[in-house]
Amino acid sequence: MDYEDQLDRALEETPDIEGSSERFDVPDPEVRQEGNVTVYENFQRTVDRFDRAEDHVMKFLQDELGTSGHIDESGRARLTGEFSERRIRDAIEEYADEFVICPECGLPDTRLEREQGATLLRCEACGARSATSG
Hints:
Blueprint: H1 3-13, E1 31-34, E2 37-40, H2 43-50, H3 54-65, E3 69-71, E4 77-80, H4 85-99, E5 110-115, E6 118-123, E7 129-131
Antiparallel strand pairs: 1-2, 2-4, 3-4, 5-6, 6-7
Helix pairs in contact: 3-4
């Protein structure tokens, strides 16, 4: 097998990698009001999609919305106050932009790392490392 044949075979077996976050879709938040509490029904599904610790996502939501809250035994986020689906969606998208999507290549193949007290976003696709705010 010559070089050209080997190259053709390698290209055929290599998966296509898109240079955008198109393959990364965040589930729309399903929220409902329960008295003065907003219940984020599919919070756990969102956390699983981000592949992040639920406490990290919850703390970010609390900071962004300026409220307190907790995660119940069913994996739902219970946030004190009334928040629209749009407001929660905006906060979740902001989380994804800062802590999930690589600023260099735009892919979601990232991990959070702690280094010398700072939180870094390390991309497993392109190798880029960037600082985050938290």
